[in-house]
């Protein structure tokens, strides 16, 4: 196995382990990691179109329409006509979705604590640079950039600002 193959295998294994652990902490809430991500984005950044949501999600295909359809049917997300254009639909969490979003953020803290303990004392700068370089000029790299930019706006203006 050469270095490139091993790095690829390590990335895949880390992603699978992360997904398994996140799904484990979310299971008591009857949420998947993808559902929790949708709720978090809508709760954190306010109503948005399906296209806007898709641009912020790290998901297969980058378009979460089937996922959102199931969440609407489950009463976690609602669709409404946009105030500025009745032809455009916006998504927002229902009250139940907001409650589950907050519970999911709390549950995922167990995962974040585990990651922090695994990486205690490790300089994440080189790893961040590696992944940024690896994802440069890709759709997923752009998704990460958009999420990072939204998070910066949220930190600068507070969590109640819907940017």
Please summarize what this structure is.
It contains seven helices and two strands, in the order H-H-H-H-E-E-H-H-H.
Features:
mainly alpha; WH_DNA-bd_sf; 2 strands; 163 residues; Arc Repressor Mutant, subunit A; DNA-binding transcription factor activity; two-stranded antiparallel ribbon
Written description of the protein model:
The protein has 163 residues and is mainly alpha-helical. It has a single domain, classed as Winged helix-like DNA-binding domain superfamily/Winged helix DNA-binding domain (Arc Repressor Mutant, subunit A). Helix content is 66%, strand content 6%. The mean pLDDT is 89.
The number of domains is 1
Distance between the termini: 46 Å
Number of strands: 2
Mean pLDDT: 89
How much strand content do the residues show?
Answer: 5-15%
Our count of helices gives 7
Which value, in Å, is the CA radius of gyration?
17 Å
Identify the CATH architecture.
Answer: Orthogonal Bundle
């Amino acid at each position: 196995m050469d270095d490139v193959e091993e790095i690829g295998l390590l990335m895949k294994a880390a992603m699978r382990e992360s997904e398994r652990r996140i799904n484990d902490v979310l299971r008591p809430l009857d949420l998947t990691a993808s559902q929790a991500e949708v709720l978090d984005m809508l709760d954190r950044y306010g109503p948005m179109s399906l296209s806007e949501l898709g641009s912020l999600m790290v998901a297969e295909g980058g378009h979460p329409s089937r996922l959102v359809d199931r969440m609407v049917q489950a009463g976690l997300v609602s669709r409404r006509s946009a105030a500025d254009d009745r032809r455009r639909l916006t998504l927002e969490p229902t009250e139940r979705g907001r409650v589950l979003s907050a519970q999911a953020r709390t549950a995922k803290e167990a995962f974040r604590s585990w990651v922090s303990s695994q990486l205690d004392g490790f300089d994440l700068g080189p790893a961040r640079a590696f992944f940024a370089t690896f994802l440069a000029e890709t759709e997923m790299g752009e998704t990460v950039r958009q999420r990072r930019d939204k998070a910066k706006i949220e930190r600068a203006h507070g969590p109640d600002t819907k940017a």
